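W.,

You were right to be curious about this one. When I first looked at the sequence I had no strong expectations either way, so I just let the prediction run and decided to look at it fresh. Below is the sequence, 340 residues in total, followed by the output.
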Amino acid sequence: MTIESATASPSKKRDATSSPPSRQRWFGLAALAIAALLPFRLGPATVFNLSQVLVFSCAVVGMVLLTGFTRQISLGQNFFFAVGGYAAAFAVIDLDISYLVVPFLSFALCYACGYLFGLPILGIRGTYLALVTMGMGLVTPFLVRRFEGFTGGSMGRQIEPVEPPSGLDLAADQWIYFVCLGFLVVVVTVARRIELSQVGRAMKSVGDNEIAASLSGIDVRMAKSTAFAWSGGMAGVAGALFVILVGFIAPGSLDLFLAIHLLTALVIGGQRSIVGAVLGAAFIVFVPLQTQQVSESLSGSLFGVFIIAAMLLLPDGIAGGLASLRRRVATSILRKTRKH
């Protein structure tokens, strides 16, 4: 029996307790409407920061599938981010391909890289897997500098500034924001469909109990390699969008700290929540900006304090905390209604 014929698991029971699909659909449409209004109400600097949130959200959503569902800890997402970014820069500069097309190409390339990378390490779990992927994350800047002819070495690669299409009354920063928002909507939609499919249920079963999943007929190796592939592909999309947003990519922004920040966003937002991925990405973008305003010299330390506080107060992440609050409010209202 293959991954497509996965049986029900404890995670499926948890999904049944979540919000109805219709309610989630209306919530998603409302959030999208608000997101579409933001660039018209905020200044260019804030719009740029929000675009960063959208970019990192694409990568974190992929980590929900890998780490959140299958419990495969990865500290090498900066590698796929770099591959997607440099592939996008190469396609735009050397192949003269539209910047609107390159995220799809980056996804295809990084999906294949993620699948191939996942095959030889499928038997590795826990801290050993974290160390292996950390090694990949550490070697990424070295590889970038090594292939100087393709990557530009330490100097990086730069593309022409992206301009909005003629006829659209949008500033460049607003147009790029909507490009990033559009690709995030695609990524979230795909991830949500995977979560609700038999493939997603198989991933969650593997994460809950690998042995039980195998005994129930789930192809554990296929589930893991599929999660690696999707996670790598979505990180590649994020890398391509990063190049479109910043117009530049260099090894200095692709080191292990990027992978650690993405993992932080996953944990802070909620490991098994797609919505939490966006909230976690907002955390790693805006909290450091606020701590820098308090004290530039202590910015890193204050950021660490906020991470510790968030984990102590919200052990299930921001999304989990919001879900718990919603249940408490609903229970309180129900009790008051019964009394009356």
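Here's what jumped out at me. The two ends are 53 Å apart (CA to CA). And, maybe more interesting for your project: Residues 265 and 283 are 7 Å apart (CA to CA).

Coffee later to discuss?

I.
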